[in-house]
Design a protein that fits this description.
The structure is a single chain. This protein has 280 residues and is α/β, with parallel strands linked by helices. It has one domain: Nucleoside phosphorylase domain (Rossmann fold, 3-Layer(aba) Sandwich), CATH 3.40.50.1580. It has 6 helices and 11 strands. The strands form 2 sheets. It has a 5-stranded mixed barrel. The chain is globular. The termini are far apart.
């Protein structure tokens, strides 16, 4: 048995990948991860082959109601894609090193480009729910990382640069697509909070001082795991609410879902256009 890494052995990662290779009709080089209230984006995938997470031996299970828990394989924007409809969070009880599992399995399947989505609270008072933000960077200061544990070189170097984690090339293409579609697109810094509780007004004030533009409970563990294996990463935040204390509002999961239902079609169109541009 090879040494344990990220909560699993390399053999266990490879067993999951081997299972998927036998069942998937395609092995795309591009993958999507859909966040809270954004599962409807999966409906745009053409001729999808669908596997429930619980039917994949050794995989994680989604426990959040708005995360469907399916792996889809099909075409979007003229590109072959894998899509994780539903993701995993530390607040569900998973160890942070386990959050790297889906990304490492995607890497073993040959994925080289990763598009992440999430729902997030707007920290900047001039921004509004329903807008879309493209991540140019993130802040993660709570010490939790998916990359702790004994090192295996098969998943990249232990110490690696993340100064350009969110691909400038993909960001430039996303802005071109947004302009062509007439979709306003913000750009900013995502502040990672562990959840599941929403943040306090004092925490939001601190995040604003530190340079955060929006706040959410996901994406960063996946982005770090992807950066380690050398994937090209782009990430979009759907601004689903104003963060606590910004406008004196209470924050609710219902608001996140309602705004997500209205904004998801725009984000789907933007991602589809980005995929088409990648193939041109």
């Amino acid at each position: 048995m090879r040494p344990c890494f990220g909560g699993r052995t390399l053999d266990q990662y490879e067993e999951i990948a081997a299972f998927l290779r036998q069942r998937l009709p395609l092995l795309p080089r591009i993958a999507l991860v859909l966040g809270s209230a954004l599962g409807s984006l999966a409906e745009a995938i053409e001729d999808p082959f669908v596997l429930r997470y619980e039917d994949i031996p050794g995989f994680l299970h989604a426990t959040v109601a708005s995360h469907k828990g399916e792996l889809l394989c099909g075409r979007l924007g003229g590109q072959e894609v894998l899509c994780l409809s539903g993701r995993f969070h530390g607040y569900e009880g998973y160890a942070y090193e386990d959050l790297a599992l889906p990304i490492r399995v995607l890497h073993l399947l040959g994925v080289r480009q990763l598009i992440l989505t999430n729902a997030a609270g707007a920290i900047r008072p001039e921004w509004r729910p329903g807008e879309i933000m493209l991540l140019e960077d993130h802040i993660q200061l709570n010490g939790a990382t998916p990359l702790r544990g004994p090192h295996l070189p098969e998943f990249g170097p232990r110490f690696f640069d993340v100064s350009q984690l969110y691909s400038q090339r993909l960001r430039d293409m996303a802005f071109e697509c947004a302009e062509e579609l007439g979709i306003p697109l913000r750009q900013g810094v995502y502040y990672f909070a562990p959840g599941p509780q929403f943040e306090t007004p004092a925490e939001i004030r601190a995040m604003r001082i530190l340079g955060g533009d929006c706040v959410g409970m996901s994406t960063v563990p996946e982005a770090l795991a992807a950066a380690q294996v050398g994937m090209e990463v782009a990430a979009f935040s759907m601004l689903s609410n104003m963060a606590a204390g910004v406008v004196g509002n209470k924050v609710s999961g219902e608001e996140v879902d309602e705004v997500g239902g209205r904004t998801a079609p725009q984000l789907a169109a933007l991602i589809e256009a980005l995929l088409a541009k990648l193939g041109s």
